[in-house]
# Entry
Amino acid sequence: MLVTQVSASILSADPLEFGKEIKRVENSGAEMIHFDVMDGVFVNNISYGIPLLNSMKGKTGCVMDVHLMITDPFKYIDNFSQAGADIITFHVESQSNVKETIDAIRRNGVKAAISIKPLTPAEAVYPYINDVDMVLVMTVEPGFGGQKFMDMSGKIAAIRKYADENRTSDIPLDIQVDGGIDDKTSAIVKKAGANILVSGSYLFRQEDMAEAVRKLKEEFLTDAE
Ligand code: DX5
Ligand code: ZN
# Structure
């Protein structure tokens, strides 16, 4: 089984305290910082972009996990890569050509990932299963932190199965989930086959973030155990 990793979504952190908060994430045992980019068109919210990512570059040992919720991600791949992204995720529902955008990410030496919203079926990622490092299955409608978890177990399990049967690479596909992940919903998504958990509001409201990260990573018990 893949080891569970945690990506802390700084959308839930106070922007005036980002310097302090990325250190808090680093000390919590979370492997990644999840950086949500919203353009006010692809989703009904606006967050932040390239200059902020650039200012965080080199300031943390965490993997910079950039989630683009923007209309034309292809146009900005070089900029986000140069600003320090280690992984770039974009949506198959965006207007960019999916294959061209994956290729642009790879050309920059960055890990490539595609994401699907709750109403988009698992099949939408199948044509790219050999081209990406990671698939992000949204467990809320993208746009805001703090929303209620939507159970996408069937979709996660279908993608895990399809990847196991069809990927030519020896490296297993990472399946990330994003939205409403806490100490309870984490068990559901891990059981379905997800191995990278994005968490925002749950992690940032904790006094002891390290303890919360440990809870997210806890092995779930199967029915047989
Ligand atoms: C939502 C963002 C998420 C968000 C998750 O569109 O993509 O990354 O920050 O926040 P929580 O964990 O609070 O649902
Ligand atoms: Zn996100």
